[in-house]
Amino acid sequence: MQKNKLVRYAVIGVLLMWAVLFATQSGRQPILFGVEGARGKSPALPLTDSLTPEDTLAQDLVLSDPRVQDMTVGKRSEVFGVGDPGFHVPASSAECFEANCRLVMIYLWDEDTTISSIVNVDTRQVIEVLEMHGVHPGLNTKQMARAVEIIYNAPDVA
Fold first, then answer.
1. What is the pTM of this model?
2. Counting beta carbons within 10 angstroms of the beta carbon of residue 147, is it exposed (0 to 12), middle (13 to 18) or buried (19 or more)?
3. In sequence order, what are the residues at sequence separation of 6 or more whose Cβ sits closer than 8 angstroms to the Cβ of residue 103?
């Protein structure tokens, strides 16, 4: 019985988290991230923890790329993930099949848009910047940890 109760609250917590993630119509930063900042100060909120040096380099290269800055400066945006693109690259980025590349995902909160950028870490070049409307990136580790914290701190779960 206790296990069913925990599962029920876990599901409720995840649903609440998703509701907070996409309840950006009010024009305020979602409370899930605890971010308090002014719009337009930076192109996007970067990931700050659990990144390898190569992931950090890829993120920095993308955030300083003029194409990405044109899409993000002055808008509520956040880096959602940095990782290996695998074989999910467009033909124009075929060099990534053999090179050391990273995929950097940035979400634009108010526009419901994901910017997907492919970076060749060895040459330090942003190869591709793709704008995808209506696409939501997966949750990053920071957001998942916050969801778990909310679930475990719920009075009914204790």
1. 0.65
2. buried
3. 81, 82, 83, 84, 85, 88, 116, 117, 118, 119
